[in-house]
Amino acid sequence: MQLIDIGVNLAHDSFDADRAEVLERAHRAGVEQMIVTGSSGASTRMAIELARQHPQRLFATAGVHPHHATELDDALYAELETLAGVPEVVAIGECGLDYFRDYSPRPAQRRAFERQLELAGRSTKPVFLHQRDAHEDFLAMVREHRPNLSGGVAHCFTGSESQLRSYLELDLAVGITGWICDERRGAHLLGLMRDIPARRLLLETDAPYLLPRDLTPRPHTRRNEPAFLAHIAAVVARARAESVAALAASSTQATRALFRLPDIM
């Protein structure tokens, strides 16, 4: 069984002390490939470097998260345009809107998102999308640019049935994280899993964030890691009334198609 983690923040400093061991545990758990998220200039550069150190197994995104929207000046944007063309980069983003935290002013978020949607359209690479408490503005912007996009994924989907329907109508893929394992916040997602076509359903940990609450035995720390993707896959498979092997096969195929990833040699 092979799994692909489409979103892991492997450049995060919580992995600095044991990144090699984290990768080895993921490999033993069946996570054969990972896409390392770029969410700022610095993390994008490190994601690309990690992908170069682990060819065919790690890949990178290039982008600026809405929390860092004010950092996307002309110089960084020009750098992102260059980085978007390197072979290790398989998507533009993580980009979008986050009105829950508002770490960057909303006009700055919308401007940064607009520029990255334009870049994704020019690059012909899919867009790695983030949205929290900003659905209407986010949807309007994605809908406007969708004809020029080669594809995209609604990363870390936690929304409602109507929000899911709107993303599927735009032919976006949907990324499911350990949020679905949280009985306090994510139980509603269980009933939505059968509504996602197999070719659109992708799996991710968003590590080191979103540690699944129902892991047993409970890890000693709250840090999530890609080895736990197998647990998320099992939860999603049960919700879809299918085998983990079938889900792993379909999500892996869908991921490779969207991001144009090679098979493991």
Structure description:
- By secondary structure, the protein is an alpha/beta fold.
- The chain has a single domain (3-259), classed as Alpha-Beta Barrel (TIM Barrel), CATH 3.20.20.140.
- Helix content is 39%, strand content 16%.
- The chain contains nine helices and eight strands.
- It has helices spanning 19-28, 41-53, 74-83, 106-123, 135-145, 161-169, 187-190, 229-240, 244-259; strands at residues 3-8, 31-36, 58-62, 89-98, 127-132, 152-154, 173-176, 201-203.
- It has an eight-stranded parallel β-sheet.
- Helix 3 (74-83) links the parallel strand 3 and strand 4.
- It is globular and about 45 Å long.
- The two termini are 15 Å apart.
Topology:
Layout: E1 3-8, H1 19-28, E2 31-36, H2 41-53, E3 58-62, H3 74-83, E4 89-98, H4 106-123, E5 127-132, H5 135-145, E6 152-154, H6 161-169, E7 173-176, H7 187-190, E8 201-203, H8 229-240, H9 244-259
Parallel strand pairs: 1-2, 2-3, 3-4, 4-5, 5-6, 6-7, 7-8
Helix pairs in contact: 4-5, 8-9
Helix content: 25-40%
Oligomer: single chain
The chain-level structural class is alpha/beta
Question: Span from first to last CA?
Answer: 15 Å
Task: Give the tally of structural domains.
Answer: 1
- The CATH class assignment is Alpha Beta
Helices and strands, in order, run as EHEHEHEHEHEHEHEHH
- Approximately how much beta-strand content do the residues carry? 15-25%
What is the CATH T-level topology?
Answer: TIM Barrel
- For the largest beta sheet, what order do the strands appear in spatially? 1-2-3-4-5-6-7-8
Radius of gyration: 17 Å
| CATH A-level architecture | Alpha-Beta Barrel
Topology, number of strands: 8
SS summary, helix count: 9
Overall pLDDT level: 97
Largest sheet: 8 strands, parallel
Could you list the spans in which at least 5 consecutive residues all have pLDDT below 50? none
Q: Which overall shape is indicated by the principal axes computed on the Cα atoms?
A: globular
The CATH homologous superfamily name equals: Metal-dependent hydrolases
